[in-house]
Amino acid sequence: MENLEKLMEVAKTNVGFLLLSVTIVAIIVGAAYAAERVIRKKIGLDKRRGKQSVRSMVIIAVLSTIAVVLMLFEFPLWFAPGFYKLDFSELPVVIGAFTLGPVAGITIELIKIVLNLLLNGTTTAFVGEFANFLMGCVFIIPASFFYFLRKSKKNAVIGLLVGTVIATLTGCFLNAFVLLPKYSEAFHIPIEAFIAQGTEKISAIKGMFTFVVLAVAPFNLLKYALVSLITILIYKNISKILKGDYKD
């Protein structure tokens, strides 16, 4: 209850950003839903109903819970400023997207963020949470679409590689033009202060360009590459359990 009250207070001071965030979320969900319907129709995959729909809801709930727990275990990397922390909460998200489709993956991503906000509140005026959601979607949408077109290990690898590259490039753009400026505005801290934290880690960082190239890009590349690698290693066995066709 206390967290909810604090969230409402922060929301009142950041209404414009929240409205923009909600609009972008709606666009992402709508576009992914439309694209998934086209793909399902193209490959002749009917929507699951009845017991399968119940199973899908259970899978989404379980994976969302796991994602929230994994989000609690985060750690900084030696080459990036301390406010960039690595976690593996995207792992259950991409597994859900591979199992049930891109829209399910986005749903798990959204539930993860909402539950984390309700449990832990926000220390970033919602900017960090929005970035986490957006980056997660940028990663899982191309990865799961490639996999859904033809479910094979090769397509899974291609999709994850494409998702990793797109997420890395998007992270650079977002940090330079949206996130760091918004952090600066929300907390009344000059952007130069964030860049200075990067310089403490890597002396070659002198400005925004070198900051995103030497800190942001490697951070996201490593994060999504690790998530991709773990997904490839465990997905086959995990999917059997989730789909209910696991045999000893």
Brief rundown of the structure:
The protein has 248 residues and is mainly alpha-helical.
Account of the 3D structure:
The structure is a single chain. The protein has 248 residues and is mostly helical. It has one domain: Arp2/3 complex 21 kDa subunit ARPC3. Helix content is 80%, strand content 2%. The protein has nine helices and two strands. The protein has helices at residues 2-13, 15-43, 51-72, 90-100, 102-120, 127-149, 153-187, 191-201, 208-243; strands at residues 75-76, 85-86. It has a two-stranded antiparallel ribbon with strand order 1-2. A hairpin with an 8-residue loop joins β1 and β2. α2 runs antiparallel to α5. It is globular, with a radius of gyration of 19 Å. The chain starts with a helix and ends in a 5-residue tail after the last helix. The model has no long low-confidence stretch (mean pLDDT 87).
Instruction: Please state roughly what percent of the residues sit in beta strands, choosing from under 5%, 5-15%, 15-25%, 25-35%, 35-45% or over 45%.
Output: under 5%
Mean pLDDT: 87
Instruction: Kindly report the spatial arrangement of strands forming the biggest sheet.
Output: 1-2
Q: How far do the termini sit from each other? A: 45 Å
CATH class: Mainly Alpha
For the record, the count of structural domains works out to 1
The succession of helices and strands, N to C, reads HHHEEHHHHHH
**Contiguous helical run count:** 9
Using only C-alpha atoms, the radius of gyration works out to 19 Å
Low-pLDDT stretches are none
Largest sheet: 2 strands, antiparallel
Please identify the structural class as seen in this structure: mainly alpha
CATH fold type: Arp2/3 complex 21 kDa subunit ARPC3
Transmembrane segments: 15-35, 56-79, 130-150, 156-180, 211-235
GO molecular function: riboflavin transmembrane transporter activity
Subcellular location: Cell membrane
Keywords: Cell membrane, Membrane, Transmembrane, Transmembrane helix, Transport
